[in-house]
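Sample log: Protein LURP-one-related 11.
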Amino acid sequence: MAKIQPLTAAASPSSSDDHPSQQAYTVWMKSLVFNGNGCTVYGPDGAVAFRVDNYGCRGGREVFFMDRQGNALIRIRRKGFGMVRRWEVCRCAHNGGQEEEATPWFSVRRAEKGGAAVAMHGGAGTCYTIDGCSARKSEYRVRGVDGAVVAEVARKQTAAGVVLGEDVLTLKVAPEADHLLFLGLVVVRGLMPSSTAPCDG
C-alpha cells in the first residue's frame, strides 16, 4: 500500500500513559483511483487506513467511507436542497463478507457563519458543532456541547515546517473520542458546496 510520512501529534507537557496525546491522521482530498473523486486517509503510521472513491460520480448523493480492503464502514447520503440540505450518516456492519442493513448514526446540517451542526440519531439535539468559514475547508474545529475542541483540521505541515497544499490536511482527534465519527465528519465537510475539493458534492 502507498505510504506517506505521518505527522505525529505533539504531546503536551502534562501527557502521560494515563492521558495519551491526540492522534493525528492525514487526509488527502484525492482519490487513489484514476479519474475517481474521493479522499484518502492515512493513519499515524503513514499507511492508507481509509478511503472514499466515487469512481467519477462527482455529484453523487451517496458516498461510502471504506477501510483499506474496500469494506464500507460509513454510508453518507445527501438529503434536501439549498438551505435545508443535510447529510444523513449510517454505520455499515458486515457478516461473513455480506453488508448488513446500515444503522442510522448521525446527521449534519449547515449552521450560521459557514459552520455545521451535528446531531446523533435519536438524540435530543445538536451534540457537535463545526466551526470555520464555508470558503475555507482546510481549517476548522469540531466542538462538543460544552464548547471544548474534540477534533481539529488544518493544512498539513512537514517536519521542516513546510505547509502542504490545501488538499492535504491533518486531523487531530482527542484520544477518548470515536475517531471514525470525526473522520466521517471530515468527509461530510468535504462534500459541502462552495469548494473545489475533489470530495465536493
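Observation: Residues 1-19, 195-201 have pLDDT under 50 and may be disordered.
Observation: The first strand starts at residue 23 and ends at 28.
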